[in-house]
Amino acid sequence: MRELAIEIGVRALLFGVFVFTEFLDPFQRVIQPEEIWLYKNPLVQSDNIPTRLMFLPFQALASQRSTWLASCTASLRAGGGRAGGSVLPSCPCTAP
Q1: pTM to 2 decimals?
Q2: For residue 88, which of 63, 68, 64 has the smallest C-alpha distance?
């Protein structure tokens, strides 16, 4: 019961901090002359982000899973399964 009271107190405190900071005036950042060069980087018009490389690991995992699932279902069709056939040991269809 004490843990519940602590949890409710912490959540109420965090909600209070959120409401307080939500209605504050926005922060206006002043950029100093020494750091203005950081914001003057040239704009590149030809942004080419190779998205195929980003999703390559997911495609590899999906293909491994589909081949594993296909071999598991093929082994079930061949007579394996709970009766003790030729099912892969990692197949979820096998009985312990």
Answers
A1: 0.34
A2: 68
